Amino acid sequence: MNPITWLVNNLMMPFLNFSYENIFPNYGVAIILLTLVVKIVFYPLNNKQFESMKAQKKIQPELKKLQEKYKDQPEKLNKEMLKLWKENNANPFSGCLPVLIQMPFFFAIFYTIRSEAFKVVIAQPGINSGFLPFWLSDLGMPDKTYILPVIIGITMYLSQKMTVTDPKQAKMFMFMPFLMVFICFNLPSGVLLYWAVSQILQIAQQSYMLKKEPETQSLVKEKK
Description:
Elements: H1 3-22, H2 27-41, H3 43-58, H4 60-69, H5 74-87, H6 96-114, H7 116-122, H8 147-163, H9 167-173, H10 176-184, H11 189-223
């Protein structure tokens, strides 16, 4: 059994059914609660990622100096850059790890919403298969109002603006939110709901960390 199938059978479907039967009889609410649980579990990892990104932002001026100084000595430049990253606890690849680890959960919720087991459950008489009847009446169908794709595009843009420190990377990733909006048009709205809530929580965490940083600095100054 592959990891995605295991997550679908042993985590996603059981959690969604438990939430529907014991917390609130709505599968949209169940997906939101599942997103909250996943975010809480991965909070320490995301926090570490954001701390590393802040460290990278802090050392950007020094990195530019090194690139200018050793522009004709690539081996020396790499050595000095590695040294600078190590001294400041900044890992340029730290942003990839949380994304890679959480990707199976995204695919798992996708396959859960598209699975026969979920279709059988929501097809039962009296089952609330949507989120809000006037908006998402069937979580297995795309969001015909395009509200969720637009929310995902906007939140992805905001998240990138807060975390991407390298101007070259910022230009490279600039088109990504527009691409994601296009990709989301045909995805099941249950998957989009999970993704949108996850993105909103991510921005909330990043905003909290940014707000916390100046407060921490002021406390340090007061102690001095």
